[in-house]
């Protein structure tokens, strides 16, 4: 494990505040993506769910969320788009 901060992708549901600033309280994109991945893993876990407990399945959901943020960030950087303003796909 590294000491690098985890990229949480910013707020999942940004609320405009003033002068283009956003309220950062609430759920992060990372938590939102992990929740969506977790729902999918639980809906059809196949042999993965049978051989792993809740902690392993939850950890996998966050691995998927981290991969989603990484790809989204790479794509946004490649296309020279502002990550928080334009979805890169």
Would you give an account of this structure?
This protein has 3 helices and 2 strands; from the N terminus they run E-E-H-H-H. It is mainly α and 89 residues long. It has a domain at 28-89. A two-stranded antiparallel ribbon has the order 1-2. A hairpin with a 5-residue loop joins strand 1 and strand 2. Helix 1 packs across helix 3. The longest helix has 25 residues, at 54-78. The two termini are 30 Å apart.
Structural class: mainly alpha
Shape: elongated
Uncertain stretches of 5 or more adjacent residues: none
Radius of gyration: 15 Å
Query: Helical region count?
Result: 3
Keywords:
single chain, 89 residues, mainly alpha, two-stranded antiparallel ribbon, 3 helices
Nutshell version of this structure?
The protein has 89 residues and is mainly alpha-helical.
List the helices and strands and how they pair.
Elements: E1 15-16, E2 22-23, H1 29-43, H2 46-51, H3 54-78
Antiparallel strand pairs: 1-2
């Amino acid at each position: 494990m590294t000491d690098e901060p985890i990229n949480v992708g910013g707020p999942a549901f940004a609320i405009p505040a003033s002068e283009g600033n956003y309220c950062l309280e609430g759920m992060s994109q990372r938590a939102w993506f992990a929740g969506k991945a977790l729902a999918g893993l639980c809906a059809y876990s196949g042999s993965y769910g049978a051989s792993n407990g809740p902690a392993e399945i939850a950890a996998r959901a966050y691995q998927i969320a981290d991969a989603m943020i990484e790809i989204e960030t790479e794509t946004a950087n490649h296309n020279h788009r502002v990550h928080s303003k334009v979805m890169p796909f």
